[in-house]
Write a structure and sequence with these properties.
Blueprint (H helix, E strand, L loop, with lengths): L1 H9 L3 H19 L7 H40 L2 H21 L6 H14 L3 H5 L8 H12 L20 H15 L5 H8 L5 H11 L6 H16 L15
Helix pairs in contact: 2-3, 5-7, 7-11, 8-10, 8-11
Length: 251
């Protein structure tokens, strides 16, 4: 009860408290107004009452809020049976000591994944990084390239691995991947120049557009897998979750 009344309420954002009191003051002003005819005098009386009810507590709260909270805390403690506090405290301390001694800090799955990919990025050969286009040498770009490398789309030098029956790389697929990478990295100008040299993609914009048109309403297995990878990347590095990336995460 103490947590609900004092700790949780008084720890709320000031805007929440202000908005709540605004509504309460408005209702009180309406109730207190003696004559509720629809005219200017009634409106002015209600407005004056509202201003007094709303602004006065706000001013007092801003000036003496901390003192009021500490006073309420002291008053609350006087109503709580001292005996119960005395018996509960040693038990709480004992539980805390047992938990702190026996339970190691638990890392979440997302933290584990983030550390895993950070370590993979750190292990990328410096020579490989130097051979990348300048726009792909950033930490975020390396993270995305490693993400696709680990799923079998790229080799150790971050070159395309999936090929068609004739031995040529699947240019349509890699144009789509290049478009997605640039969307995440906010590379809008010159993106096809980058990948025309790096992945030997000619007419990348047309190839990516053709795949979108052909698979509209029925995404391919690769598109679904790429969408899953991009959602994972945006979850591990939220700043990669750009507006342009949204369409690639839908399939």
């Amino acid at each position: 009860m103490y947590d609900i009344i004092i700790d949780k309420w008084f720890s709320k954002d000031r805007s929440v408290l202000t908005a709540s009191w605004f509504v309460v003051s408005l209702l009180l002003a309406f109730i207190i107004t003696p004559d509720k005819h629809v005219d200017w005098s009634t409106f002015m009386v209600m407005l004056s009452l509202f201003a007094m009810l709303f602004l006065l507590p706000c001013i007092i709260g801003m000036a003496y809020g901390k003192r009021i909270k500490s006073w309420l805390q002291r008053q609350w403690r006087t109503f709580v049976p001292k005996r119960k506090q005395d018996t509960d405290e040693p038990v709480d301390r004992q539980i805390e000591s047992i938990l702190s001694a026996s339970t190691p800090p638990v890392m979440t799955r997302q933290e584990d994944e983030t550390r895993h990919y950070d370590s993979l990025v750190a292990k990328v050969c410096p020579e490989t990084v130097r051979n990348l286009p300048d726009a792909l040498q950033t930490n975020d770009a390396l993270f995305l390239l490693v993400l696709f490398r680990e799923e079998g789309y790229l080799d150790s030098d971050f070159r395309p691995m999936i090929k068609k029956e004739d031995g040529e790389i699947n240019r349509t697929l890699y144009a789509y991947i290049a478009d997605a990478l640039c969307a995440a990295l906010v590379i809008r100008k010159g993106k096809w120049v980058i990948f025309e040299k790096f992945w030997s993609l000619n007419n990348g914009a047309q190839l990516a557009g053709n795949l979108r048109s052909a698979s509209k309403g029925n995404p391919t297995e690769h598109q679904r897998h790429i969408a899953k990878l991009l959602r994972k990347g945006a979850r591990l590095r939220p700043k990669l979750d750009t507006c342009d990336l949204g369409e690639f995460k839908k399939p």
